Amino acid sequence: MLNIRINTPLEHFPLSVDIKIPGRGITALFGPSGCGKTSLLRCIAGLHKATQAHIEINGHSWQNSAHFVPPHQRKVGYVFQEASLFEHLSVKSNLLFAHDSNTSGNDALTFEEVTHLLGIQHLIDRMPDTLSGGEKQRVAIGRALLSAPDILLMDEPLSALDFKSKAEILPYFEQLHTRLSIPVIYVTHALSEVESLADHIVLMDRGQVTAQGNIQEIMLDLASPLVLFSKAGSLIDATVTQYDSDYDLTYLSVDGGVLKVPGKQGAIGERKRIRIGANHISLTRSANNDSTIINTLPVTIEKIDITDKAQCNLILTLGEHTRLLARVTRWSTDQMSLNVGDQLYAQIKGVSLVKY
């Protein structure tokens, strides 16, 4: 775990956080613009000296009441919103600028591996002004990785990109997620990026942490702010089991059944993360095959929470271990006399893959 406790004044409110971050995987700092996410990142990097802080990374203290490790002595890879490449240097020279050639060990990323992981082998002789926004950001990430950091900090690295560039770069992020053995802290206010990339999440508002934990669990916590979002939903793990070429449908095995999604979505046996929106689930007491909805799975009501006068949030159990969030009207809840423990069928109107 990375242990981070910070209390320091900001311009409009104090930054007061106490978080524990896994030593591997991607942790998303998520919240509205101006809530203190970037300030927290800067404190971790040492770019902002917090008045009170305990920052411990991989068993090494970077700041406590007795000492403060300056930024240049912290092994941090930092990727900003803008790529900030050296315009007078080629891509190769940019990548090698901070390369730690003395790094050794099984987890050290080589120049060849970084360029391959990020798909930038063909760009190494180009100059930055000839690159697209997505290409520049991939080079910036590569430069940060080649500094052999103990931690990678990413401050809204996709915010300056258009939709097409974001779509192009996300698969490379997933490859890094699989290969890296260091923690990544990823700042964003885009829920879609959190759902696509994060393993762990820290929710922030006005300098305070409102929730933290495993992303799939936080999305199902009825006390979490995420559950109140209009686009709230669930993330579940699935495995590709079949492709029906006649109807162009991929069959995904999940705990408790099989889901069908349009298109060829991967090789047999490949693991996927899928998202099911809370508003995309309707409930019936009997399996109804006379419908255009092709995904119907048996579920049990675990919790019912009345969110407002019009709506209820329900936690549903699917299979032995999987849980789903469903949002239905209070009218429907009363008309169907829904209660905890009821065994129903969830008609799932939309399934989207969010992790490749």
Output the CATH homologous superfamily of the largest domain: P-loop containing nucleotide triphosphate hydrolases
Q: Mean pLDDT, nearest integer? A: 90
* N→C terminal distance: 26 Å
Query: Mind telling me the C-alpha Rg?
Result: 23 Å
Estimate percent helicity: 10-25%
The number of E-state strands comes to 20
Low-confidence stretches: none
Can you describe what's shown?
The protein has 356 residues and is α+β, with helices and mostly antiparallel strands. The chain has two domains: 2-231, 3-Layer(aba) Sandwich (Rossmann fold), CATH 3.40.50; 234-353, Beta Barrel (OB fold (Dihydrolipoamide Acetyltransferase, E2P)). It has helices at 37-45, 91-96, 111-117, 133-145, 163-179, 191-197, 215-218, 330-335; strands at 2-9, 14-21, 25-30, 52-57, 60-63, 76-79, 151-155, 183-188, 200-205, 208-214, 233-244, 249-254, 257-262, 271-277, 281-284, 295-306, 311-318, 322-329, 343-348, 352-355. The strands form four sheets. It has a six-stranded mixed sheet with strand order 6-7-8-3-9-10, with helices on both faces. Helix 4 packs parallel to helix 5. The longest helix is centred in the middle third of the chain and has 17 residues, at 163-179. The relative contact order is 0.12. The mean pLDDT is 90.
Write a brief structural summary.
With 356 residues, this protein is α+β, with helices and mostly antiparallel strands.
